[in-house]
Amino acid sequence: MLRHPASYRDPSGFIFKKNHLFLRQINPSYFEEYNAIKSAGIYEQLWKKNWLISHEEIEKSDDKIIIQPDQLDFVTYPYEWSFTAYKHAAQLTLRLQLFLLEQGFSLKDGSAFNITFHQGKALFIDTLSIEKYRENEPWKALKQFNEHFFAPLVLAQEHGSFYLKTLQHRIDGFPLKEASRLLSWKSKFNPTIYSHIHFLGKKENKNTGELVEDTNSKGLSKAAQIKMLKSLELHISEMSLKENTEWSAYYQQTNYQDEAFEIKKKLVANWTHEINAQKVIDLGGNDGTFGKEALKHASQVIVSDIDQSAVDSCYTNTLKIKETRIIPIVTDLMQPAAGIGFNNEERDSFIERVKGYSPDLSMALALIHHITLSGNVPFEMSAVFFKSLSPYLIIEFPDREDSWVQFILDSKRDARHLFDDYNLAHFEESYAKHYSIVKKEQIPNTHRTLFLLKRHEG
To answer: Which domains can be identified in the chain, with CATH numbers?
Structure first.
């Protein structure tokens, strides 16, 4: 039995894969806690709230308990969440801890990797992260929570969404001492920021992983902890990110006329239906407008985009309309999240997770000119990339006369001539090595052509 590379840190148990299913083994060291949680009905209550991933106990012996959690189609990581999603993940963690305290239990860690998004909402996925509450003991996961959640959120609010990607290069969280230095002096006048970042940052232990002993917090009552956590949750709930980006209003600035825009939407929906695509990934999907068209016939769509504001709009809108089949994710295709952690296996890369998801269809709408002209990626390379993800591809090609293409070419100035081969004929020739054309439609009143391609197998 081989444990999953992401599941080595907790001695209580581990995740492993068997017969294409992810299972969790619980070790004897956690039996007492597990049985207490189970007897108190904590798991069932959290399942009813849709806060914790549900599971079924399938094997029990003196040396192990095996449970089968609900299987997740696609796991997102904190550095791929939009600001509002990150907030909601933080709030779920705090609300879970508040609930557990009331029931006589507590979370033993505050890692953001304990959360992913399932059916449109944040979901806690570490079943073994619950332990019995010990009277007057401070929440030992508070420092980790601040490093994984609060510090990145506060830094993003003050300095920009880049800080939401903190855990991609600092898997153990953002050091509070450093966060304190980066925040403005005015932030010290905010009691929540001061106590959770500036004050704790002063006491930060230099030995990674050790619990910071705070003499002022020893003997902290449950009531005091609850008050503190409610104050922190309220602060996070009121946070916002006002960041206008290049693509957040893209569909309002596009050169599409209303009629052409509607034709493009219909083509996406119809072609998705014709090939019976159930799982779709919309690369460069902006706010999910065309992903929703695919959803008219598909069962699930991943909407990925480099733009934080556009993805945040997608996420908040899916919540508003109670759409549970869209997975919004912030991703730069020119530098997608790599595998990180021990041996680069603890958290899988974006590309590996997409391949594991096995989409039937990839969509690349209004994307190829940015990859080719801004990113300098040859058609041959992008074709190989898209081909590796799914059997079918819907791709939009804006010709040289398109206003966005002209804008990018103009920015090249003296190097403009190096992109003379950016044209429809060269695009088709390059992609023909890897795909056959199933459908091809020139979108009326535009300089754009939409293709439905099927990859060559073998």
So the answer is: 1-242 (1.10.510), 250-455 (3.40.50.150)
